[in-house]
Amino acid sequence: MWFFIVFTQILVIMTSVIVWWFIQPSRTFSKVALILAIFVINNVALVYGLTEYWYERFHVYLVISILQGFMLYAVFIVAIGWLIYRKLFQRALPPKLVRSFAVGVYMGIVGLAVFNAYSPVVHNLTVTTDKPMPQPLKIALVSDTHLGRWFGNRQIQKMVALIDAQHPDVVVIAGDIMNDTTIAYDNTNMHERLSQLKAPLGVYATLGNHDYQGYDEQIARAIEKAGIKALDSESVLLDDSVWLVGRSDDVDLTRLTAEELLTQVDTDKPVIFLEHRPDNIKEISPLPVDLHLSGHTHGGQIFPLTTLMKWFKPLAHGTKNIEDTQFLVTSGYGFGPVPFRLGTRSEVWIITLQQAD
Predict the structure, then answer these.
(1) pLDDT band, residue 92 (cuts 50/70/90)
(2) Which of 35, 115, 173, 314 is the most buried if burial means most Cβ atoms within 10 Å?
């Protein structure tokens, strides 16, 4: 909590300097009013957010904070552009033109961040196994839909259309299906749209950390009613040829180890392991798992976290083959508490698992 209090006052100073530069107030009253307004707006947002720490109200505070952070990005870009122009042409740009350019850059950053959050892209991956498979298996993977206030029926409908167009055999969801609760899901009747998500071999999901915020039973019941099978440390044999193993998130203290789960299946057949987090690569890689699917990281979601995440995660986003296991971490279809993505993009993965030639 103290971190956010200090962080908010730093935002006040930073935003005051940037807006001061942009407006160029000359009167004492205007200067005082500017600083006071920024101070009040930020601290009212902070108090409002802390009344519901890490939940919906806090998300509003995060949105306001990130929008101010984008101002700093715009200033850096404008400063670099100004320096390049001066170096090339040996003269400075007119101040009004620089400020107009700054507005354009800022709007461009915000627009790009919103576009990346709401405009998903489809990625394809082919994975081979030495284990026998009568025919390839086409899998659609989504994760971190975070269904809630800012991500609902329209996005579900787009997801269903994207997946239907790929004609997968099975659909899997790697956790964080809802954003903490079922409240927005129930209030806006998302069930009607989510129940349209279908595949010949079924739709399966595991729960993520946001699904375990006190609503895990309600979320599991809601998706089951929508025709999605919740795999809570369970296994299912797909098309009599491929095992799908689903494990609950590690906030579930009763969950089994990967090795214990694999005793439930015949590992002479291909094994797909589905869970929310990608933190267990060392545990999984020595085991007879052909494909490990996860999400959780959002790929960092917003720069510079998109870069910093790579320092702290064995695999923050994308694919990596380790000891005959193909790992895939999706950045997610949704976006969590804030409707922005900068350096990542909403995505769906289509994976074809097939026997090696």
Answers:
(1) confident
(2) 173
